[in-house]
Each structure stands twice: as C-alpha cells, then as structure tokens.
TrEMBL record:
Designated name of the protein: Integral membrane protein
Entry annotated with the keyword Transmembrane helix: yes
Keywords, ordered alphabetically: Cell membrane, Hydrolase, Membrane, Transmembrane, Transmembrane helix
Protein biosynthesis keyword on record: no
Entry-linked PANTHER family: DECAPRENYLPHOSPHORYL-5-PHOSPHORIBOSE PHOSPHATASE RV3807C-RELATED, SPHINGOSINE-1-PHOSPHATE PHOSPHOHYDROLASE
GO cellular component: plasma membrane
Domain Phosphatidic acid phosphatase type 2/haloperoxidase residues, every copy: 70-181
Pfam family, one: PAP2
Chain residue ranges for the region called Disordered: 218-243
Membrane-traversing stretches: 37-55, 67-90, 116-135, 142-160, 166-188
Protein topology in the membrane: Multi-pass membrane protein
C-alpha cells in the first residue's frame, strides 16, 4: 500500500497545505523555534509534567492516592513505549510515504526523514504519555493532553506528517494506554505499595509529610494500606482515575 492519497483535493492534503502554509508565512526564527519544540521540546515538557504530577501526589496525596498515582505515572512511559512497538508493523504494512515525497511546495523544517509516515511516532508517544498522566491525575492529564495535541500540530506544521498520521497516532497512543491500563495497574499498584513501605525507597511513592489515609483509634498511623481501585479522596481535581 503505497500512499493513502496523492490527490491534492483530498481534505487530508488540503489541511496539510493549510497548516504547513503557516510555516511559509512565519519568520525564520519562529520556524526554528517550532522545529526544536516539535522535535524535542514538547516531549521534554511532558516528562517534566509527569514528574511534577508525581511530586505533587507524593507530597499532598493520601497514602492510597499516592500509591495509585505512582503506579499510573510509571505506566505512562511504559504504555507509550508499547504503542511505539505496535506502530512498527503498522508502518510496515501501510507503507505511506512522507508527504514531502508526494507533494511539492511544502515547507519542510526537518530533513532526513526516510521512514514511513503513518502513523506518527511523535503523536503516538506524546498521547500515550499524556493519557497515562491523565490516568494518574485529571488536572495534570488535561495539561498533558494539550501538549500532546500541540505535538501533533507541530508535525503537520513542519511538513513531515499528514493530519491523518497525527490522528492515527493519537488513537493508537490512547487505545494502548487505556485498554492495557487495568492489567498494568493490577500489576504496578501492589508493586508501588510494597515500595512505599520500604524504609529506603518509600520516598519514591510517598513523602513523610503527606497526609495519612488511615489511623487507629488513638490517631496513630497504621501504615500504608493496599490501595483500593477508584477510591481517591481530597480535591476533586486530584482524584485518580486508575482502577
């Protein structure tokens, strides 16, 4: 299956030219910024956002919330990596050329792309991480999804992907993260609970200053319990979605 479209009247191609046309109209310095942001900056931003989410939950979440959030944060990059691996045979089957190989007049900001176009690895990776963060925390997850959408837009802006490449990447990253989340959380949550009880590495899951979820009749902390799916107390924006 060579290209999915070669006709410039195709909406996919028309939207490609419309978005990529912004790069032609923009000053050179702005294109250089978009080149760096689209290739590296957004991914770095997603990593920082995930770390911020982890740090926030371990300091302000209860023991139960912190364990579940830590499991979801660990799942986010694992899910994105699995989605990228699944994309390898998809690309080989579709064999869609990069848009600049089939269409003239594009402003290509990044050269040297010789692999196939569908689906976009960057979009798959970004949305996989973003949805994983959303599983951990809604508020941080919405910010992450916004960054992932901008990552997809930047791939079209730079002339290296069709819009449907990006949409396919979003769908793949989301599907892998959500469909495998129950199994992943069932495996990772007990692991994070065990880590949280360790005197050496328990800080990874929960800060000593974090609120205690359970206490005995004297007000003494009873330790960190095994998390129950769907509990989530505290600020509505801080509730975890992992179950």
């Amino acid at each position: 299956m060579a290209g999915l479209e070669l006709d410039g009247s195709n909406p996919d191609v028309s939207l490609l030219y419309d978005i990529n046309g912004l790069a032609k109209a923009a000053p050179t310095w702005f294109d250089r910024v978009m080149e760096f942001v689209g290739e590296y900056g957004i991914m770095f931003g997603l990593v920082l956002l995930g770390l911020w989410c982890w740090w926030s939950m371990r300091k302000r979440g209860t023991a139960e919330d912190s364990v579940t959030a830590a499991a979801a944060i660990v799942w986010a990059p694992l899910a994105a990596a699995i989605a990228i691996l699944i994309n390898v045979p998809i690309r080989g089957f579709v064999e869609r050329p990069r848009p600049f190989n089939d269409h003239e007049g594009l402003e290509v900001l990044i050269h040297g792309k010789t692999d196939f176009s569908f689906v976009s690895d960057h979009s798959t990776l970004a949305m996989g991480i973003a949805v994983g963060i959303f599983v951990a925390n809604r508020k941080f997850g919405l910010y992450a999804i916004g960054l992932a959408i901008f990552a997809g837009f930047s791939r079209i802006y730079m002339g290296v992907h069709y819009p449907t490449d990006v949409i396919g990447g979003f769908a793949l990253g989301t599907a892998v993260t959500l469909l495998l989340a129950p199994l992943a959380m069932a495996l990772l949550t007990p692991l994070m609970a065990a880590v949280s009880r360790s005197p050496r590495v328990g800080w990874f899951v929960r800060s000593k200053s974090a609120p205690v979820a359970y206490a005995d009749e004297h007000g003494e902390a009873m330790g960190i319990p095994e998390p129950r799916p769907g509990s989530g107390r505290g600020d509505p924006g801080e509730k975890d979605l992992a179950a």
